[in-house]
Amino acid sequence: MTEPQSAPHPKLDELVAVLERLRAPGGCAWDREQTHESLVQYLIEETWELVDAIETGDKDELIEELGDVLYQVVFHADIAAEAGQFTLEDVAAHMTAKMIGRHPHVFGDAVAETADDVMAVWDDLKKTEKPHRTSVLDGIPQRMPALALADKLLGRAHKVGLLDATLPGAVNVADEDELGPLLLAIVASAKANGLDSERALRSALRGLQQEIREFEIEAASDAGVIGTTD
Prior knowledge:
The protein is mostly helical and 230 residues long. The protein has ten helices and no strands. 71% of the residues lie in helices and 0% in strands. It has two domains: 10-86, Helix Hairpins, CATH 1.10.287.1080; 136-225, no CATH class. This is XTP/dITP diphosphohydrolase. Keywords: Hydrolase. InterPro entries: MazG-like_dom, NTP-PPase_MazG-like_N, NTP_PyrPHydrolase_MazG. GO terms for molecular function: nucleoside triphosphate diphosphatase activity. Residues 34-107 form the NTP pyrophosphohydrolase MazG-like domain.
């Protein structure tokens, strides 16, 4: 007689079961009341706590914070499952298919020997998967922290050829030990003068995004002109 095999991830299954019990009738009133929208604040908070754990390099903290983020995923999936929308298995299946599809150099016949090659393949596949995205700015979450958004937008501006992000700007900073105090000094100066650093940077980024979109339109127009004269 063949012995039944144990579940490959018993602790993950146990976590799912705990969440289901908390949200079941007779469980926890607070958990029952939560929605996707009400959980956003906790997802953001737990994500930043995970970032802190990664940056401090504390293994126990990393385990705890990864667990907190995982719990958020399980929580959202349970809310959706109760509403008859989708399940945690659907989420996992979609991500599995996505990762296999995005890595044809591993699961298929494509060749991508360097990290840059991989990113080129990734970008091409995203264009095929999301044809409704007509700008490199599409899909960028605007509520990202301003500095993270700035880094993302500069990368997109480089991609379309608006600027060369590999060249040092007006202030050339060689390492993060130098960069940190410089950024802090800028924020301190802004505060002393009653300025809002976050708002100021976001305002500049809106201008950069407008430049990118105008550059894309001009480039598309030029390409169209070239195409009709060939």
